[in-house]
Prior knowledge:
The chain has helices at residues 2-16, 31-44, 66-74, 94-104, 118-126, 144-156, 164-170, 182-193, 213-224, 262-272, 322-326, 336-355, 359-375; strands spanning 240-244, 250-253, 282-284, 291-295, 312-316, 329-333, 380-386, 389-395, 402-406. By secondary structure, the chain is α+β, with helices and mostly antiparallel strands. It folds into two domains: 2-21 and 245-406, no CATH class; 31-228, no CATH class. Strands 2-1-3-4-5-6-9-8-7 form a nine-stranded mixed beta sheet, sandwiched between helices. A hairpin with a 5-residue loop joins β1 and β2 (250-253).
Amino acid sequence: MKNKATSILLILSILFSSLTFAFASEPTNTNTGYRMQNLVNLLKNYATGSNSTTSKFKDTSTHWAKDAVTKLTHLGIIGGYPDGTFKPNQNIQVDEFIKLVVTAMGYNPSIGGGYWAEPFIQIAKNEKLIGNNEFSNFRRPITRQEMAKIITNATLSKEEAPEETFIAYLRGQVKDYAKVADTYKQHVLTAYGMGLISGYTDGTFKPVNNATRAEASVVIIRLLDETTRKKIVVNEKDKINLRNNLTGKMITVYPPHSNPEVIRIANALKVAATKSKGYAEPMYSGFSGSIFSNFTEKEEHAYSDNANYFHGSIGIATVDDKIEQEIPYRIDSNNIEAIKKYHNEVIKDVLRALFEKEANKAIAEYEKYLELANTSNKGFSQVVVINDRSMHFFKDGAGKNIGISITKKGVRFNWR
């Protein structure tokens, strides 16, 4: 029953995907960028190793964050201790980190006679770096997830966020993502996506660990200098560029962590769609997050409300959901004669990509049930297993239509 519900949700998402394009506006907030420009220029003109600050601190000459500490000291954003040390591995407090970020954003507030950090904290609240009641104690150590939120908000005040598809992909790249508090999840992923934070060598982020002065120095330099950021690079074969059906803009789609092969199949669909004698352009659904190809005779028919223009579709689930990724592929034929006339080669090529060395068997089963659906007035539900995948052929009642659900390898379902 759950498998049938999943199939219904996928086809509904494909149908709803046939929406006309509505272009989104671009963010225009550049005030932070202008305010930071002087510091950015100073940093560009600074050559590491040419300044006396390189050897100023006794405990940073061989430290992994030496360059960041040196640059930040040169800019006057951070300093050391009277004993000539920087203490790079010492925890940094919430107020201290806020001061670093606010200063790096180009602010230089006057410090009154009260709590020294109050002017910086107020600016942080005004700039929406932190919530009004987010911290009850600014003198305690700041955690890494808290640091991620503040540095991300500061960066987003001058730059655009990464694509949502990339952010979703990153969930599978952070091993301890589930340990990140819900309040900070999006900020942590965005920090990774923008290269502000790269995590540890074991693939973890350690969200509740206290941030150190060294780590804080590195992320501040990455705020100021994009060339120092550690961005995650995805191989071209592991992503696909498609039009977003809601915006009309190109978007990069990345593989779900639980089933990376969907991008290979999507790329096969993209190539196969060129063989259609009608219209079958694959797109990314801004509604459901799936990849789909709606089959019609002409392109303009793909955006019509007239159901008679709709021959069928191929849907590929890309959301990293366990159930969806057990049955990620769906083929629907609503007008079998039109499918055979215009789009049959597209479907066959996708089956070849899915079933590889046993593709001929899968194509034979597809053609058998396609013909049965076209000639019989009875419904049916039949499962076959080919090359370690389950194929579920089903037809409801007397109509001339057929649906096919296909699992990823190793998944077995008994649809009834």
